[in-house]
Design goal:
mainly beta; 5-stranded antiparallel beta sheet
C-alpha cells in the first residue's frame, strides 16, 4: 500500500501481528474502521498525534480499548507492556484484563491494576499476567481500561505482548 510504514522490528514480531502507519488517513476514520476488525472502544474520543500515537480523550464513565482478535500462548507470553503518557483529572489506575484458560469473558480475577505517572511524559508500564487466576492455555482477548474524569487524555504509543519483564519479543 503506498504511503504505508511498518512500525517495529521487521522480524521479531508476534505471529499474525502487524503495526503500520498510513499517511493521509484521518486517525479517527481509521480507528472507526478498526471497530469492524476486532478492536472495540468505549467512552473516549480517538485521534492520532503526528508521531502516530493514539490520542484518547475520555468522554464517559467506562473508557476502554478491547482487542478481540488476540490468540497467543499464556505459557510463553506472560507480560503486556503499554507505553503511554497521561494528563488525567482524578487519576486512579490503568487496568489490563486478559481472557484466558476457562474464562469466556473479561473478569476481575484476570485483571492487573497498575498506578501510572500523571506527568505528561511517556512511560512504559509492564503488566505481569502470569499470576492471574487460570492464566493458562490460549489468551483470546485483552482489554485496556483507562481512568480519569471526562476531559482526561492519554497518548498511547504502543501496546505489546512480551515473553519477559525485560520486554523480550518473540522470535
Amino acid at each position: 500500500i503506498p504511503e504505508t510504514r511498518l512500525n517495529g522490528h521487521r522480524t521479531q514480531r508476534l505471529p499474525g501481528n502487524v503495526n503500520v502507519s498510513v499517511r493521509y488517513i484521518e486517525g479517527e476514520a481509521l480507528l472507526l474502521s478498526l471497530d469492524l476488525k476486532g478492536i472495540t472502544r468505549n467512552h473516549f474520543k480517538p485521534s492520532y498525534n503526528d508521531d502516530g500515537s493514539l490520542h484518547v480523550e475520555i468522554t464517559g464513565t467506562d473508557p476502554y480499548i478491547s482487542f478481540k482478535g488476540v490468540n497467543y500462548s499464556a505459557d510463553e507470553y506472560k507480560f503486556v507492556q503499554v507505553t503511554m503518557k497521561a494528563n488525567v483529572i482524578k487519576p486512579t489506575n490503568i487496568v489490563i484484563y486478559a481472557k484466558a484458560g476457562s474464562k469466556s469473558g473479561f473478569t476481575e480475577s484476570q485483571a492487573k491494576y497498575i498506578s501510572f505517572f500523571n506527568d505528561g511524559e511517556y512511560h512504559t508500564y509492564t503488566f505481569p499476567l502470569e499470576k492471574l487466576e487460570d492464566f493458562t492455555g490460549r489468551v483470546t482477548g485483552l482489554r485496556l481500561d483507562l481512568s480519569g474524569e471526562k476531559g482526561s487524555t492519554f497518548d498511547i504509543s504502543e501496546v505489546k505482548v512480551v515473553k519477559g519483564h525485560d520486554g523480550g519479543m518473540p522470535s
